[in-house]
Amino acid sequence: MKFAERSLTASFTPLCSNVLKDKSRFPFALFQRKLNKSRSPSAYTQKKQPFSNAVMAVGPYLPPRFSVAPMMDCTDNHYRTLARLISKHAWLYTEMITAETIVYQKDNLDRFLAYSPEQHPIVLQIGGSNLESLAKATELANEYHYDEINFNCGCPSSKVAGHGCFGVRLMLDPMFVGEAMSVVAANTDVPVTVKCRIGVDDHDSYNELCDFIYKVSSLSPTRHFIIHSRKALLNGISPAENRSIPPLKYEYFYGLLRDFPDLRFTINGGITCIGEVNAAIRAGAHGVMIGRAAYNNPWHTLGHVDSAIYGKPSSGLTRRQILGKYQVYGDSVLGKYGQKPTVRDVVKPLLHLFYSEPGNGLWKRKADTAFQHCTTIKSFFEETLVAIPDFVLDSPVGETPVGRDELFADIHSLLPPPYEVREQELLHA
């Protein structure tokens, strides 16, 4: 198989940063006195002023109008390399990395935090529930120059939300989340954001969601929230079931836009194609995050982001050209950390590149066989890509998928009643 030659480096269009002034909506001093009753003053917030201005668009990159969700065992270095070859402007997230992992692996951090410069704009998602670990992890991560740091308050996995007592369970303790976000912000110079759900178990009213947003944004510099528009059920169902069983409540998300006009909100959950992304933005969303659709069908999802979302030229690469560049990357990282990564590890995100295309089934069967003996990405491609017709390898991305036009058509008529701040109740919560 012959590949065309082109540079791997992605180009970006410089933009001026958009800076939102901090607007704490109720007296921080009152909250601080409340915190100090149970905790001594946190040393981790002393390095910088915790209420510094929050930058919403970083450096030379376009704002996060479209982002790929952090997904465990999916959005690793290999997937992000592929994603950036397809889209120059989509915001990419790491898998969630616990603060404790970063601290304990401080002498081996490249394995967990290193990435190629082409992956910008990129967000580090961290998880944890220990302020000291969060502070140290943030300091250690600074060396890697991520564009934002996101705090996980949305993962429903029992391993995360159970014994670890972080992830979505933290939504039940917004006072702690506010302090944690101040700690993270005090130890970095990049914006900090929160990814959460709309509720947990029976704590699923719109007012409870607003209370969480209100407290966290008032206690910290957090001005951007990514909202998965389903609640989480911690009654033993799996993370996969938590992505489908709880109903989507987009009206909660758009209620937040109405009730917190000084904050930024990105919608997540149930949106599967670029047409639906644009529908959400037309309805008022500041940004849209897509997860499984961007992983399971990267070509037809990410291939339209630059032109249809950002109004910029697409990369113009065919899948043959993308695979040529990916081959160079893949063979350069094989065995970099002892026996890892393997050919199977590096090829994993490519297995969805020909989703629904002629030859896709045969390509996957050949891949299963090739994993048993191929030792390079080049040899793997030579053995397997004969299954994919030339017209598939060389065709452009095609027309933008339309999606469900009605998804947000009547959303503003379905909004919950406006949030009324119960300040005295909040201060004594």
TrEMBL record:
Residues 68-376 form the DUS-like FMN-binding domain. SUPFAM superfamilies: FMN-linked oxidoreductases. Keywords: NADP, RNA-binding, tRNA-binding. GO terms for molecular function: tRNA binding; tRNA dihydrouridine synthase activity. Gene3D superfamilies: Aldolase class I. The lineage of its organism: Eukaryota, Viridiplantae, Streptophyta, Embryophyta, Tracheophyta. It holds the Pfam family Dus. InterPro entries: Aldolase_TIM, DUS-like_FMN-bd, DusA. It comes from the Eukaryota. This is DUS-like FMN-binding domain-containing protein.
